[in-house]
Amino acid sequence: RNYARDRVQGRPYGQPAGAAIVHHPDVRRMLLDMKSRIDAMRAIAYYTAGQMDRAHQADGADTRIAQATVDLLTPVVKAWCTENSIQIASTGIQVHGGMGFVEETGAAQHLRDARITTIYEGTTGIQSNDLVGRKIARDKGVTVAKLIAEMRSDATSLPYSAELLVGVDAVEKAVAFILATNDLNPERVAAGAVPFLHLFGSVVGGWLVLKAAAKAKAKAAAEGDDTGFYGSKEVIAQHYATHVLPHAAGYLSSILNGSASTLGFAEDQF
After folding, report:
1. How many whole angstroms separate alpha carbon 260 and alpha carbon 251?
2. Is there a domain that residue 267 lies in?
3. Are 209 and 255 within one domain?
4. Residue 36 is part of which domain span?
5. If you placed Cys at 127, which of 21, 79, 218, 233 could pair as Cys (CB 3.0 to 4.6 Å)?
């Protein structure tokens, strides 16, 4: 962000010569993409931590539900967030341009540091298989169904509810496919496990980002200030709803139809 504010290059549309690159539309897109994904990652981590607290403090059925939710979301925190960290760090280099690839800015170091995170603590593939196999199929979809119902219920009072509901519908269809297919053809489910991780993480993250925007709007109205921190949450939610959530349809297609090429490619053809 600071580099984009200071670096002068090119002539952004409608700006005088000598304007900082933060005025270029594509640089703004990249910065917002980084910011909105970080908000989603942070929200999922906090939500999961909150469920951990409830699991320790609640009684009876509430304890079991909270712990089951923690179990469901742990692979998402581990794998979806770390996959996004690589993408965000890579985008950070892109914002810097050629300077991002040299050591002076430190941008490349963030990417090197992020790259290992999808390997230790279990690779993305292992975490994704755990998500679809143990946390959804073995659970008969009980816990994920509760979360889907909560997201669907909340959507009616959230901004960009239509975009969120498209994502929720995609998650529901993917879960139905997993439950119907896993016992008979677990390989087919496993072939779409990573796309499901990306679908599930992006939709849960979107739900929480939109909830934050709704809370921020109420706070801004109460305090009479919608230009600073609270106002930024609305723009972040808008960006996430229009740039990240639309990928849900593509992930769903990969989950339902992508196994044919993955499993059909002969070993000696690699």
Report:
1. 15
2. no
3. yes
4. 2-8+21-118
5. 79
Answer with the one of 118, 146, 168 that is the final residue of a domain: 118
The closest alpha carbon to 206, from 160, 252, 153, belongs to 160
Q: How many helices (H) and strands (E) does the chain have?
A: 13, 0
Could you tell me if residue 14 is inside a domain?
no
DSSP string, 26-42: HHHHHHHHHHHHHHHHH
109's tokens: 């170091």
Closest CA to 144 of 175, 113, 165: 175
| Same domain as 72, residue 160 | no
Partners of residue 20 on adjacent β-strands: 8
Cα angle at 142 between 139 and 144, to 5 degrees? 100
Segment 9-29, tens digit of pLDDT: 666 677 667 677 777 788 899
How far is 167 from 188, CA to CA, in rounded Å?
22
**What tens digit of pLDDT does each residue of 105-154 get?**
788 899 999 999 999 889 999 999 999 999 999 999 999 999 999 999 99
User: Which listed residue (104, 121, 187, 223) is catalytic?
Assistant: 121
- Domain check: are 173 and 50 in the same one? no
Last residue of a domain, one of 85, 118, 151: 118
Domain count, the chain: 2
DSSP 3-state percent helix, strand, coil across the chain (nearest 5):
80, 0, 20
Q: pTM to 2 decimals? A: 0.92
Active site residue 121: yes
Find the distance separating the first CA and the last CA of the chain, reported in whole Å.
Answer: 41
* 270 contact partners, CB below 8 Å, separation of at least 6: none
Within this chain, do residues 91 and 134 fall inside the same structural domain, yes or no? no
Any bridge partners for residue 8, and if so which?
A: 20
Rounded CA separation 8/145 (Å) = 50
pLDDT at 6 over 60: no
Q: Say if 129 falls within a structural domain.
A: yes
